[in-house]
Amino acid sequence: MVNQQQPEAAESKSRQLVSRLSYSFGAFGHDAFYSTLSTYFIMFVTAHLFDKTDGAQSKMIAAITAIIFVLRFVELAIDPLIGNAIDNTRSKWGHFKPWIIAGGTIGSVVLAILFTNMGGLNTKNPILYLILFAILYITMDIFYSFKDVGFWSMIPAISFDSVEREKTATYARVGSTIGANIVGVVVTPIVVFFSVNANHGQGDTRGWFAFGLIIALLSWISAIVVGLGTKENDSELRKNTEKTTVRGVFKVLGRNDQLMWLSLTYGLYTSGIAITNAMEFYYFTYILGKPGQFSLLATLNAVIGVFSVLAFPPLARKFSRRKVFFLSIAIMLVSLACFTVAGDSLPMVLFSAVLFFIPQPLIFLVVLMILSDSVEYGQLKFGHRDESLTLSVRPLLDKLGGAISNGIVGIAAVLAGMTTGATAGDITGHGQLVFKLFMFGLPTLLVLAGTFIFFKKVTLDEKQHAQIVDELEKTWHEHLDTNQNPEDIQQELAGTTTVQVPVSGELVSLQQVAEQSFASGKMGEGFAIKPSDGEVCAPFDGVVEATFPTRHAIGLRSDNGVLLLIHIGVDTVTMQGTGFVQYVTEGEHVTAGQKLIEFWAPAIHKAGLDDTVMVVVTNHGDLAPFKPAKTTGEVHQGDPILDLTLKTE
To answer: Which residue, among 247, 514, 567, has the nearest Cα to 386 in the 3D structure?
Structure first.
């Protein structure tokens, strides 16, 4: 039996590794595509799509950037419908993979076409070109969104194990960081290599088409790899009944003030940095006159980006997220000031640009953490958990920032004279001034405005979130979603539920624990255990009714209707999930003895906290009086400890 299990375990680990690597490569290609579309495509439009002798090029560039700007806003409005369409997809390949492959295929084909002049239509028949451009662009953008939503929503479907999910997400984060930055490393070498005319390192239309085609192929191949290398796990848990709509998003924003102010902060901030990021290639091309050196900056950012992501957890623990945010903003403002006076000094430009990039992953993670915390904030305030709606806000804001950036960059390029045929020597002092106002001045104002709102209005921090989770824990059983009527529940309770010991250790009287809400009986009646093991298992067959982002507690409903809360440690909510791993999700049916949570006692002790596990029956008022089978001594996971039956009249 052992010999048979070992190959199966090895095969399972092998499948997991293949899945992680496939998903990571998918993230690599996905973000390479987005980086090309959001940053480098506009350079092709403004500097290479038209002939410099064409007097109408400025009007055409303005028209194209206006189309991109408007269509991105249109796509924002239909984005929630895309999520619903994916949720309702039923195929033998799953919910997500059909859209990932379809989006990757259609998006890649259209991207390659957009990096052409469509057979000269841009000059022969400008109106027809603009019409075709609009149709192709919105088609690509919609299918990209299908792929984007499907891809990043796929993690919960790959595994129900939170440890495996975190590993998969980490692999993907590294892949996406490298993918987004590698494009900047290869853009100039590819363009110049395939160009007939090097054009001072800017290349020509043939080189830019080759670049677009290579990125398109990379994106398509990565989508196929995701389709072949990953497997969706279907379950009742993944049946989504909550539909996301634009109206729903604004409804949640309107009533959750912390989410609203954070969204406004991030919307202003992401628009500002998107403008500067998109104009860096222009700076190297038209201010420095060294487009080939941009690869050096992109390489530095790719390496530093990974380290910046890894630095976030220790920085947040040492200084708090709020302080990390303000420190990051300060670094960013200093970098913009340095960039403004860098002139044509390559070392100064590289220093300023790298300094500008370092805080970006940190700010992103601060916003993501507070955004996630605002789910519980809204749940406590309104008694309803709007998780999918809340988490859909950030992607919408990123796309909004991209839309604003594309419009601003196009205008700046035309006003500064950075269009087809221009070189660094052609840009006047006035043109440079106009360019720098757009690249540095406008983003500085947007970032400062967002920071001011964050300082004044965003108050949700780790301490407040811990208090919110603690309060939700106390009232979790009062807000259970159920379609059952009281008679059905009473009928369920008619049976006997045997509660098993969830964790091995030494029994302790509940009245003696340091957590007063449990010692006083306010949380319910039950028992406590000083654990000798860190594995917490289901005490009966039932459903997971409540989980917490801090993973320190779990609420269960037995098949006979008994409500039971398992709470690990005293004040462990303040650990924000460090040292805890959760293996089940809300709504999942579990069997007695199934692993629910694993915790690392040394982490709890290092934090100066008590690791006593408290187990209470929260609906004890509906049950006949009960006592544990024993109140002292050693117990082992799986030992019967309580027999619970309905109270008789």
So the answer is: 247
Q: Is the pTM of this model over 0.85?
A: no
384, 567, 620, 636: which is the annotated catalytic residue?
567
Does residue 567 have an active-site annotation? yes
Calculate the alpha carbon distances from 636 to 149, 497, 504, 568 in Å: 45, 19, 4, 16
Judged by DSSP in three states, 595 sits in strand
What's the CA gap between 187 and 210, in Å, rounded?
Answer: 10
Burial 611-622 (b: 16+ CB within 10 A, else e): bbbbbbbbbbeb
Secondary structure class of 58 (helix, strand, coil)? helix
Cα diameter, the chain: 95
Q: Of 376, 388, 572, whose CA–CA distance to 460 is shortest?
A: 376
Give the distance, in angstroms, between the CA of residue 592 and the centroid of all CA atoms in the same chain: 34
**CA 78 to each of CA 81, 266, 404: distance values in angstroms, whole numbers, following the listed order:** 5, 21, 18
Per-residue pLDDT tens over the stretch 400-434:
888 888 889 989 998 998 887 788 889 999 999 99
Q: Is 531 helix (H, G, I), strand (E, B) or coil?
A: strand
Tokens linked to 471: 């309060």
Amino acid at the residue 457: K
* Spatial separation of the C-alpha atoms in residues 427 and 431, rounded to whole Å: 6
Helix (H) or strand (E) holding 406: helix 393-416
Going by C-alpha positions, the residue among 616, 512, 507, 635 that lies closest to residue 566 is 616
Three-class SS of residue 67?
helix
| Contact status, residue 615 vs residue 508, Cβ threshold 8 Å | no
What digits encode the pLDDT tens for the residues 556-580?
Answer: 999 888 899 999 999 888 887 888 8
Structure tokens, 454: 């964050």
Total Cβ atoms within 10 A of residue 134? 16
